[in-house]
Specification:
heterodimer, A: alpha/beta, Rossmann fold, globular, B: 322 residues, mainly alpha, MetI-like fold, 11 helices, 73% helix, flat
């Protein structure tokens, strides 16, 4: 089932993953998200404001920036996870294939079904490995060929070989890195178009991190991937496009803003903005 | 002179000595307190058994299955009261469990922030109503309502089921007692379940919602399965309350010794029989038999409590041990 090139380097030190980065020309890009003048506020606090950004299909887009710059808030506004936070308010527009996901008549449940999310802390359900992956398909009524679907998702998430003999065991018996890959398998089992990854490797050791990063490369043919990371090297390793967010302090209020959004190579080697340069060269943050 | 400079001496100073005495005293008093609780439980069990002994030797275990309680003929059996206890508790749990879980889900997952605290406190205050007051309300309000409206209606619509027989004339009976117990049990189960639901990590709930689940699917698929053992323990704690309640039940159950399939008929529970009859017990055997009832109630109560503890320790899905 598993192709040879998804073997996980469990016994080698993490290395820079060799990759060809995709930098499609503006005419070849497929716009998945078109975000216009987005602002998210929690009560009196403005977490992020004035964000204009396009996210392109079948690329990996990374959001980087210092702590508290609103990058997690931003990624959570792309599948309406912020709806769950009491007092959170979203202004501006998030167009997904031209359709405003905050528009009238849009069902947030349907939004999340198409735009999957993996969180900072692996959050498998206290159920068996199999039932974790099968949970989403069951809820959504995709009950045909469930075994094959589970196997396919676990294989895509590069976890199948490690768990195929213990699918009925509790997911909580897996290691942290395995749990996170299980969460990715769970997310892709319902065939979303977009995968949002909110610091998916920040709680993992370097080897597990390398496995997740390699997995992202394998997945981007089929999915549009957006990743928040506080780790610049990670963004440099995996992302085709990178957005740098920062904090703007005005009248004592700290607001997250988008500073620069570019091809990853350009953003790291030849940034247009001084603040980006300071950050990527380690002078700030 | 020691080579160690005085500043670095590791020997106890006088104040440390004081602390050590406090340490010993703490150990001593807490140990005594803990042992006292155990000793008290033992002493109570011992005394109840000792006072019930004449009846225990007279009837043996056949007391449990004896259907007659007749102080005049001096024939005593516990079955009517065991039946009354079991049925009244069953009614209470059947109605209270879904109600309490619904309240807990609303309070923990759905209620808007401001309402949450107020309603939560009010629900818990239900448990603060003294049972004798609740019993009076049962006599004056609930009983007449049941006798005049609900019981005739149930008898009319569902009378082909033997449970819904002739309505009681005054509104006292097993059914009324079951409903009063429901009111007592709901806040217990609801407040425990609310805590359980709040303990389900937000990440799990987000994980479910991020998979395109609705709130109901999240509740059914994640929250309830992860808390099911806790819910079972909460129900058993509610059961413990229902089994042992005496005053309010005595007020509304009507008092009787006949097992009837009709829920609206009067009967007694173990607890209400003891509460109602102990003062006026005529013979030594009757007193001993009432204490035998108490012993049965005690055993049921202890087993219930034990069951709740075992469930919580052995099966907890959130700890992954199953």
């Amino acid at each position: 089932m598993m192709t040879d090139d998804v073997t996980i380097p469990v016994d080698v030190a993490p290395v820079e993953i060799a990759q060809e980065r995709r930098t499609p020309s503006p005419t070849q890009r497929k716009v998945v998200f078109d975000i216009r003048d987005l602002a998210v506020t929690y009560g009196p606090t403005t977490a992020i404001s004035g964000v204009d950004l396009e996210i392109y299909g079948n690329l990996i887009t990374a959001f980087i920036g210092p702590s508290g710059c609103g990058k997690s808030t931003f990624i959570r506004s792309l599948n309406r996870m912020n709806d769950l936070v009491p007092g959170a308010k979203v202004d501006g527009r998030v167009l997904y294939h031209g359709q405003d996901i905050y528009g009238d008549g849009v069902d947030p449940v349907e939004v999340r079904r198409r735009i999957g999310m993996v969180f900072q802390r692996a959050n498998p359900f206290p159920k068996s490995i199999y039932d974790n992956v099968a949970w989403g398909p069951r809820v959504l009524g995709m009950k045909k060929a469930l075994d094959e679907r589970v196997e396919k998702a676990l294989t895509r998430a590069a976890l199948w070989d490690e768990v195929k003999d213990r699918l009925k065991k509790s997911a909580l018996s897996l290691s942290g890195g395995q749990q996170q890959r299980l969460c990715i398998a769970r997310a892709i089992a319902i065939e979303p178009e977009v995968l949002l990854l909110d610091e998916p490797a920040s709680a993992l050791d370097p080897i597990a991190t390398a496995a997740i990063e390699e997995l992202m490369h394998d997945l981007k043919d089929q999915y549009t991937i957006v990743i928040v990371t506080h780790n610049m090297q990670q963004a440099a390793r995996v992302a085709d496009m990178t957005a740098f967010f920062s904090l703007q302090v005005e009248e004592g209020k700290r607001t997250g803003i988008l500073v620069e959004y570019e091809n990853t190579d350009k953003l790291f080697t030849n940034p247009a903005d001084k603040r980006t340069e300071d950050y990527v060269t380690g002078r700030f943050g | 002179m020691s080579a160690v400079p005085t500043d670095y001496s590791l020997r106890s100073s006088r104040r440390r000595l004081g602390d050590r005495i406090g340490d010993v005293a703490l150990r001593g008093t807490t140990l005594i307190a803990a042992l006292a609780a155990v000793a008290l439980l033992g002493a109570i069990v011992w005394k109840v058994l000792a006072l019930a002994w004449p009846s225990i030797t007279h009837y043996g275990l056949s007391f449990v299955t004896g259907e007659t309680w007749d102080p005049v003929k001096k024939v005593f059996g516990a079955l009517p009261f065991i039946y009354g206890t079991a049925m009244s508790s069953l009614i209470a749990l059947v109605i209270a469990t879904p109600l309490a879980i619904a309240i807990a889900l609303w309070l923990s997952e759905l209620a808007p922030g401001g309402v949450r605290g107020v309603v939560g406190s009010l629900v818990e205050m239900l448990a603060a109503i003294p049972s004798v007051v609740l019993g009076l309300w049962g006599i004056l309000v609930l009983g007449p309502f049941l006798a005049n409206h609900l019981e005739p209606w149930l008898h009319d619509k569902l009378g082909f089921i033997p449970l819904f027989g002739e309505p009681s004339p005054t509104g006292t009976g097993l059914f009324t007692a079951g409903l009063i117990l429901t009111i007592m049990v709901v806040p217990i189960i609801a407040s425990i379940c609310r805590e359980l639901f709040l303990q389900v990590p937000d990440e799990l709930e987000e994980g479910a919602l991020a998979l395109g689940a609705t709130r109901w699917e999240m509740v059914r698929g994640v929250i309830l399965p992860s808390t099911r053992t806790g819910i079972a323990a909460a129900i058993i704690l509610g059961l413990g309350r229902a089994l042992g309640e005496a005053i309010a039940v005595t007020q509304v159950i009507g008092g009787g010794t006949m097992i009837s399939s009709n829920l609206f008929a009067p009967i007694d529970t173990l607890a209400s029989k003891i509460a109602a009859s102990y003062q006026g017990a005529g013979s030594g055997l009757e007193t001993a038999s009432l204490l035998y009832l108490a012993a049965i109630l005690l055993v049921i109560g202890l087993l219930t409590n034990l069951a709740a503890q075992v469930i919580v320790r052995v099966f907890d899905p959130l700890k992954g041990a199953h």
